[in-house]
Amino acid sequence: MSREFDFYIVPTPIGNIKDITLRAIEVLKSVDLIACEDTRTTQNLLNFHGISTKCISYHKFNEKERVNFILNEIRNGKKIALVPDAGTPTICDPGGVIIEALKENSFSYTSLPGASAVTTFVSMLPRSGEEFTFIGFIPRGEGQIKKISKKYADRNFVFYDSPNRILESIKVIKQTRGDIEISLGRELSKLYEEVVTDKISNISEYFKDGIKGEIVCMVYADKNSDETKLDYMIKDLNKKGYSNSDISTILSTLFDLNKNKIYKRTLEITKTA
């Protein structure tokens, strides 16, 4: 028998309605209230699995307003579950505010293991090593995308994006990092699931007529990541007006590198800048 908690963080299917654990179904049946992003979406899931628990809305626009209501319900002995439209709550979904409040008020809570687009996607990708960085939804601004592309040049990084913006986002990444390899997944666990791994130019061509569905993407680390990241830093410092000598001093001090080698590389880069 599982331990009982005041509050449960419950993952829901990211596509296939059957991708939910037996424990999650058990919890959703046993609690007094289910807080959900969209009651209509959650009701479809509950109806499919024969769950009749009452739902209340809990989304990013009413999150702060709902906290006191939920805390009072718990004080009155109610058990509550939090679910998103899809995936794991608080991972690019509402939930952080209530979790902080539960902790501050010493209420017990737990998170159930379950569906996540990030782990589902990464687990099927060709890659070496285990390390990757998840950044959530990639920013909309071109400058912000370029900054992220440079920052994580030394590692694989994963992000969410909308189907309306993804092709423009990878175009900006290509401008910053070159025609590197990425993996792009859409509609994971659904009928039209598709995962493509290729150069950015080839993926852009493949989806030239448009792309539909929920999007998750991984940008692979540069093969010469240390050198590439150093080059980005040299270019950034050069744009900010630092002299070649200053750049070599700053970077050699920060990263314990050979100052003469950095100076030589700085001259090579700034000549073509």
Walkthrough of the structure:
- This protein has 273 residues and is α/β, with parallel strands linked by helices.
- The chain has 3 domains: 7-115, Cobalt-precorrin-4 Transmethylase, domain 1; 118-219, Methyltransferase, Cobalt-precorrin-4 Transmethylase, Domain 2; 225-272.
- It has 11 helices and 10 strands.
- It has a 5-stranded parallel beta sheet with strand order 3-2-4-1-5, sandwiched between helices.
- It is elongated, with a radius of gyration of 23 Å.
- It starts with 6 loop residues before the first strand and ends with a helix.
- The mean pLDDT is 92.
End-to-end Cα distance = 66 Å
Q: What is the percent of helical residues?
A: 40-55%
Average pLDDT taken over every residue: 92
> How many domain modules?
3
CATH architectural designation of the largest domain: 3-Layer(aba) Sandwich
CATH topology of the largest domain: Cobalt-precorrin-4 Transmethylase, domain 1
Low-confidence stretches: none
Q: What would CATH call the class of the largest domain?
A: Alpha Beta
Q: What is the strand tally?
A: 10
Q: CATH superfamily membership of the largest domain, which one?
A: Tetrapyrrole methylase, N-terminal domain
SSE sequence, one letter per element: EHEHEHEHEHEHEHEEHEHHH
Strand content: 15-25%
Shape: elongated
Map the helices and strands.
Blueprint: E1 7-9, H1 22-30, E2 33-36, H2 39-48, E3 54-57, H3 63-75, E4 80-83, H4 96-104, E5 109-111, H5 117-122, E6 133-137, H6 142-151, E7 157-161, H7 166-177, E8 181-186, E9 194-199, H8 200-206, E10 215-219, H9 225-239, H10 244-255, H11 259-272
Parallel strand pairs: 1-4, 1-5, 2-3, 2-4, 6-7
Antiparallel strand pairs: 7-10, 8-9, 8-10
